[in-house]
Amino acid sequence: MSPPTPADLALGTFSEHPPWIVDPAALRWNVGLDRVRARTRAEVPELVRPRRVPPLRRLVATARHLGVPVAVWACTERRRGREASRAGLSRRFRMACERLGPTYIKLAQIISSGEGMFPDELVAELKFCRDRVPPEPWDDVRRIVEEELGQPLEAVFASFEPTPLAAASIAQVHAATLVTGEAVVAKVQRPQVASLVRHDLAMMAWLAEALVGRIPVASLANPPALVELFADTISEELDFRLEAENMLDVARVLAELDQRGFVVPRPHPQLVTRRLLVMERLSGFAFDDVAGMRHAGVDTEAVVRTGMIAFLEGAMLHGVFHGDLHGGNLFVQPDGRTALLDYGITGRLDERRRLAFLRLLMAGVSNDTRSQLAALRDLGALPADTDLDAAVRDLGLDQPPLDPTTLTGDELVAELRALVKALLGYGARLPKELMLFVKNMVFLDGAIATLAPDLDLFAEITNVAAHFATTHGERLWRDIGLDPGSLEVDLTGVKAGFGVSADTEALTYRELQERREVLRSRLGERGGEGGRRRRFAVGRRRALEEEED
């Protein structure tokens, strides 16, 4: 006789063998959390307010920790060949991030998710920052646990491993067993992390303001919004009660979407405080253990496909999604389900931005360029009064796609420069909500490279569109007035984004990686050509002519 189905599976995508049952009405730690979250968000403007003078001590420390390793690398490893040189610089950058603390470790984690987009040596080195940062001393860990519990550690835990399972930017995680017998993990916040984060944000706010208007690409990336995103996310990460609530919210959304391919750990009903989070212990294959997964019969392509659809559905239909996807936050269980960990950063879109994201997705698969720009405008990427028809023309979006692999390094740089100039001319900025979304897409890009390099990207995009039309047709009509029966998938714009011709029928991720490697090599060759500039016209002549004037 099979065991009864846990009652809380109706509330979220939890495991089928619970150490306890989640009962929202019985939780002790979530009382007043709405006020805590509102107060935390209200503090962000002050945290990122540009100062006339930066925190000098932190600025000097940052310059020292980053500048000295670069100088040593330049004097020792720079001339040892391309791979050795990159590896040496990447290692020194990782060590500098670890010494500088949580904010820089978080930056390293973001870069480590960009396989195929950043140099392989850099990505490989920064993966250590996901969960293998040097841990805090055991005495400090015990002190924080006992301060948060208000009693000796042994009164709550039958065992508590001094060596952490993982150590990252904000906290480290220890395996433990409760005195009542349940196997758990305890997430313990690092000491003094809140003070370090505040000093880093003050320095970054000063630097972001200094960059605006001085470097074109920096203006497009919107440094103040990037710093505000850091402040939004890291401030909430510093209170583990908010993270526990995020866990329950994401689990609920996944259950409502019937995405049972994910498992969310249950937070403990009582043992959650600002600096301590005790949760159900889950395990599985590391996200890059492709051989182990396939040996266990796991369909790695299905893992990627489920992750992509669930991420898009959460953002587009509920406005809630896990905001910090990287390999250290995921386990793939032997049954193929993905255990999703670490909810310190959770994306939450208001209704206006959620609808804009939904329109952006559907316009992308139907190649409606004007509607895509309209959605980006509604997200805040373009000013509200943007002339969309003129923007389509000036950005060259009505021109045949250009294959970047046919260009020389100088031509690539000139093309990018022209595009950036045109975007800045329209006042384009990357809004913070879109930054969080793009960060996750960078991770999913790398996940495909690891788990499904021979996946046909065009077929998968078509399948995602079909899934939305068939599964959420009524919702699409209600939210954005789209009749799913009239949706026609047109991948011309998608193909243009990948830089391939409209008649290309298939493109695997392996082939995309090869194209990216060509582009990287072309840009690398550019430096050895003596900086020669060859002007050319490729559909954006107006922007280039303005630049030369």
Largest sheet: 6 strands, antiparallel
Cα-to-Cα separation, first versus last residue? 81 Å
Number of helices: 24
Mean pLDDT: 85
Low-confidence stretches: 527-549
User: Helicity range of the residues?
Assistant: 40-55%
Structural class: alpha+beta
Shape field: globular
Output the radius of gyration. Answer: 24 Å
- Number of strand segments: 12
Strand coverage percent:
5-15%
What is the subunit arrangement here?
single chain
Give a short synopsis of this structure.
This protein is an alpha+beta fold. The chain is built from 24 helices and twelve strands.
What does this structure look like?
With 549 residues, the chain is an alpha+beta fold. Mean pLDDT is 85; it is low at 527-549. Among the domains are: 7-31 and 239-348, no CATH class; 351-548, no CATH class. The N and C termini lie far apart (81 Å). 54% of the residues lie in helices and 9% in strands. Helix 11 (223-237) crosses helix 19 (432-451). Strands 1, 2, 3, 4, 6 and 7 form a 6-stranded antiparallel sheet that branches. It has a 4-stranded mixed sheet with strand order 5-11-10-8. Strands 9-12 form a two-stranded antiparallel sheet. Strand 2 and strand 3 form a beta hairpin.
List keywords for this structure.
549 residues, alpha+beta, six-stranded antiparallel β-sheet, four-stranded mixed β-sheet, 54% helix, 9% strand, globular, disordered C terminus
SSE blueprint and pairings:
Blueprint: H1 33-42, H2 44-47, H3 56-76, H4 82-100, H5 102-112, H6 120-126, H7 128-131, H8 138-149, E1 157-160, E2 166-167, E3 171-178, E4 183-189, H9 193-211, H10 216-221, H11 223-237, H12 240-256, E5 262-263, E6 267-272, E7 276-280, E8 285-286, H13 290-295, H14 300-318, E9 320-322, E10 330-332, E11 338-340, E12 346-348, H15 351-365, H16 369-379, H17 388-394, H18 409-425, H19 432-451, H20 457-471, H21 473-480, H22 492-498, H23 509-526, H24 541-548
Parallel strand pairs: 5-11
Antiparallel strand pairs: 1-3, 2-3, 3-4, 4-7, 6-7, 8-10, 9-12, 10-11
Helix pairs in contact: 3-4, 4-5, 4-6, 5-6, 9-11, 11-19, 14-15, 14-19, 15-16, 16-17, 18-23, 18-24
